[in-house]
Phage tail assembly protein (Sphingomonas aracearum), 116 residues
Amino acid sequence: MTDQIDTPPSRVPPVRVPGEFDLEHDIVIADKVVLPAGTRIRVAKPMGGALRGSNLGGLVRMDFDQVRLVAPRCTTPILHPHLIDAMDPADVTQIAGEFVDFLLPTATKEALFPSA
């Protein structure tokens, strides 16, 4: 008979899916949780129509007003401007990061973040 040592299961970090993230904080409006923490947000790659009226430079710089303008056009569930206004800054930054990831050319991303 062999002795078995109970080891806790290893915690494997979740696989990051491009264009998706989970809210870290509740979105609360008028003391009501509209979207709870942990809600999966899908961000579609903004194409020409979704970028209409936006400033691409501002979007790449993660300008709040540009994120607020484009997010309702390419998020599921739809994050309307009043929801963006109520979001925790960390969650707004996650959306903005997805936009930057979509908009920067691959060569630029490789130069900024070389793989190990």
